[in-house]
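Whether sequence alone determines local backbone shape is best considered at the level of individual chains. The sequence in question and its structure tokens are set out directly beneath this paragraph.

***
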Amino acid sequence: MASGVPELVAPGGSFEKLQVAISYGADAVYIAGENFGLRTAAFNFTNEEIGKATRYAHSRNKKIYVVINAFLHDKDLQGLCEFVKYLEDCKVDAVVVSDFGVISFIKKISKLNIHLSTQNTCLNSYGALLCKEIGIKRIVLGREVSIDEAQMIKAKSGLEMELFIHGSMCMSYSGNCLLSNYSFNRDSNRGGCKHSCRFLYQIDNHKDYFYSSKDLMGLEHLSLIGNSNIDALKIEGRMKTLHYLATVVKAYREGLDQLKAQKSMDQSQLFELSKVMTRDYFSGNLITKADDQSVFEKGKNDKTEDIAGIVLEVNEGKHILLSVKSAFDRNDQLEILPFVGAAKCIDALEMTDVSGKNVERAKTATMVKLPFTPDIKTGNIVRIKRKK
């Protein structure tokens, strides 16, 4: 960490999301194969796609981490050896593993860098020293750890420390939860989490989100983190939307760049984070321990904007070609989110299909042409500015 600025690690729930994460400033992206991960409902990468993703990232001087973070029973281990050897052949930068038995196995058959998954719930320096003994390079700390504790654990162990900085929080220890097992017969710790804690429950005629935590947001604490020698910051959300991913990664990228340049925090990035659908934000355990104020209450925040699509092509001075992700009308005001700098408003008053025919409404999964806007780039997200 020669620069003094932590690596920004973002989720890659699909190849398209991986591209967006890298374009908007992630230093590394974590992805999952078709087995051994904790998000079976998410898009997961085939072996061929992992190879493609790794080549894409490395060609842009970015890193790829592959999660093997489910708690595996013996019957789940079939194919693990072949998968690990394939990842080594692909030259992925690390695997993120939760189970010590699996870690031992990977160490025996490969030279892959190993990061301890947050699912293992490492919260102290004794656990970190054990990790060091068995050859783990980095610890993704439990979400219960504060910035000060992370700094202390790093100082005592000498290992790299990765800290969650943004996204969903579990009400259990770093996701070691059995609610879905009992309510839906789906094992949370083997990829089947049904997010039972997010449901609306009723107790004595009172309905509320009793088990649902607010979302973590640590943007305001980047300067403190920068002084704590933390190696990496992780954004949660392989199942989140493209809009969420682009907006959140960009906000933290710009915050870290300001930190590197020793500039004060640009408060506009806090406003950007309010544009995506979230629960209320709080700082988790980064500064002080979470308490009863961390529980989400009824009255979920309304997002002010949504994704319209992604720019597929820029025809200089003429038009842009947009792959439509959410339907919008000719009269809707749109906003381009550039890779760097402030968002720019455009309108869709001149909107045609690919053949040049005027259209009144852009439909999902189609392509439309919009007026050219200076400084727009292929891969930019275009948002719909919702009327409040």
User: Anything to note?
Assistant: Residues 242-260 form the longest helix (19 residues). The mean pLDDT is 88. The longest strand covers residues 305-315. Residues 7-294 form a domain with the TIM Barrel fold (CATH 3.20.20.70).
